[in-house]
Amino acid sequence: MLARVANNLFWMGRYLERTEHIARFMNVNYFSSLDAPSEVSQSRNFVLKSILFLVSGEIAEDKNVTDEKKVLYDVGLNPDNDFSILNCFKCARENASGSRDLLSTELFESINSLHHYITNYPSEHFVANGLDEFTSAVSRGIILLRGKIIETLIHDEAFAIISLGMNLERASQVIRIINTKYVDAKSSKTEFHNSFTNSFEWTTLLKSIQSFDMMKRYYKKAPTSADTLDFLILNPSCPRSVMSSLNSAAKYIKILTKNEKRDSSSFLINKIRCEYSYTSIDEIEGRFADFIEEIIDKITEISIRIEEEFFSY
Amino acid sequence: MTEYKELPIFSSYDLNDRFYDEIFTKDKKVRSIYETLFNLFSEYKIDDFQLLNEKAKASFLNQGITFQVYGAKEIKEKVFPFDLFPRIISADEWEHLEAGALQRSVALNLFLKDLYHEKLIIKEGVVPIELINSSANYLKQMEGLKPPGGIYNHISGTDLIKHNDGNYYVLEDNIRCPSGVSYVISNRAALKRTLYGAFNHYPAYTVDNYAENLLTIMQSVKPTGVDNPTCVVITPGIYNSAYYEHSYLAKAMGIELVEGRDLFTENDFVYMKTIYGPKKVDVIYRRIDDAFIDPMEFNPDSVLGVKGLFKSYKKGNVCLVNAPGTGVADDKAIYTYMPQIIKYYLGEDPILNNVHTYHCSNSKELDYVLNNIANLVIKPVDESGGYGISIGNKLSKEEIEKVKEVIKENPRKYIAQPIMSLSTHATYIDEEQNFEPRHIDLRTFTLLGQDKQFVLKGGLTRVALKRGNLIVNSSQGGGSKDTWVLKK
């Protein structure tokens, strides 16, 4: 496989995954904030900041979130914003185009029809009434694409690279979402005056990652900070946890790796995976902010290593 | 039989005596080959047909068979207009076309070989040397070079029309990078999906075998000493208007689609950059023009090509499909000598007609042209895509004077031909919700390899969608039709 095409496939996977996370995060946070318990967390200002923080990584100033419609437009459909859903998906599609000869017709057609759906969605309707409809349709569309990737491609190197991209992006998005909600939880004091033990924000967090029901099923109690973080970061049986993404990444890098040298991506992924396998949540809780930083750095490091090993000749 | 005009979807179909209509005879009878299809279509209501038309469009959009229109603010994607009424060619008619197209391609290949070696045809005075000397597409670098398998124009596209005398005429040969074959295949796919009922009644040849034949042809011209050649398609990239075709062909052949930046040369061999390092490439189907394939040899500003590619080619380490420098043989001035060229190399009379051509480089013919512009089509010899063409009977007096001036300035640059009347075919017009006659042409695709020849049984029927328009290029608002070649 061509190195350039591999690079296209990797980023196609990443952008597909990113599109879905942004769409879902927007949906869950916006709608759960409508009846949020505290005045702060219920304010428009608060949820808009939270959404902007996820996509841009910067805490927005108050004056920049006064116009709700503008913020929604910026994150959803603004073609001039690199991080908008519209642009993320556009990048996914461009990368797909660049490797089109390796993709199945079925997969490419589905990417195209979702692209046409997104670009033709009327923005006035989106900011007024269409938030739920649009973001749900985008999430559904990406799930369909994921299905086509699994069901219609040969499970060879191309498939492994797409999956690698998706899993690394998933790990990265999940940790970013955790970070966003962590920042939210800190800044919104709930009525219990304990943002860290029984917070509304933890529920929203779990829902943003589609893990709320399963988390309750696993721990059989309402979410607390420790359990939530354990579930979303370290628990390998939660399909969206960082641990699970790393495990999948290890599986796919194996398909690509001919021999595992010490400087290979495979070596790095497995090393990081082993470290988290033997980390317990109690060790993290005291230094949570640092821990998030660390994970983000490590995922970036993996991504760079993959790039060096496979894409740059 | 009912008068066709009584059918709602044919109510505005006006026959014009000046043109050959593919569906109806001059006395308004349906030609026998179209009878079944016509009866089938006449059962449709306008609404049904409108719906089918939408369905076909959506199918193209989702398959991504689109081209981009650059507007002031944004880039819009549009589908190439596709018409649901297929063009049918009988077995006998096709036999003639196929033999003629093959004959031309073979003769052109011999002509190119001669031009870049002994130049016998010029020495013997059959083709004037000025035509070669003044041609921008003649590549000195190709002189004395022996392409693998002795093939120059592996892929040829022959553009034909049917004149009002009911005969086919060749309008031009395309032997640089003829495009359009993917539309032949996707038109068929779309038509099968929308009008599957019609196929039961006609024994048409498949067009899906093009890619496998192309791959066989590519493998047949592998460099000496290579057992299992690695073949690739090279494209300018995803923003090229023919990118769909490039990716389709690569996928259909199961080979890599590369861009210039994916390849490099070392010790005069060509390699592609894979995830596991370099891999040698043996045969390249290049969809990049001559000038851009190698910045070291040709246009130094090219970022699309590969440095050192031509040197590797010259050494016989890689094969380029089509060979560089083929453009010298398909320009419009050479076209006019095709009957002589065929006779010279093959000792045969041309099977397909040439349109009579006046050379403005010849002073006698120049006089005739200047005096008869109103009845002629004036074409620059070295433009493609329908640009720079003036059609005499569409020009005002002032415009004719202007054209005269332009020709006089540089007579070598122009040729003139009688205004040929392209045949018309029933074409669904969206705005009218009705079938109307529109002008069509036909491009056939011929493949030449080492000891292998193939003509695709089908072709690209292009249709000029604007009423009265004679230029069918997609860049000038043309659409296309599925083309059925019937079995005997």
Helix content of chain A: over 70%
- CATH architecture call of the domain at 224-317 in chain B: 3-Layer(aba) Sandwich
Taking the sheet with the most strands of chain A, its summary is: none
If you compute it from the alpha carbons, what radius of gyration of chain B comes out, rounded to the nearest whole angstrom? 23 Å
Classify the beta-strand content of chain B into a percent band: 15-25%
Query: If you average the pLDDT of chain A, what whole number results?
Result: 89
Tell how many strands the DSSP assignment of chain B holds: 22
Outline of chain B: globular
Round the mean pLDDT of chain B to the nearest integer and report it: 89
Q: The CATH topology of the domain at 224-317 in chain B is what?
A: Rossmann fold
Distance between the termini of chain B: 27 Å
Helix content of chain B: 25-40%
Which parts of chain A are unreliable, with pLDDT below 50 for 5 consecutive residues or more? none
Shape designation of chain A: globular
Low-pLDDT parts of chain B are none
Largest sheet properties of chain B? 9 strands, mixed
Largest interface: A-B, 26 and 25 residues
Q: Which secondary-structure class do the elements of chain B indicate?
A: alpha+beta
Radius of gyration of chain A: 19 Å
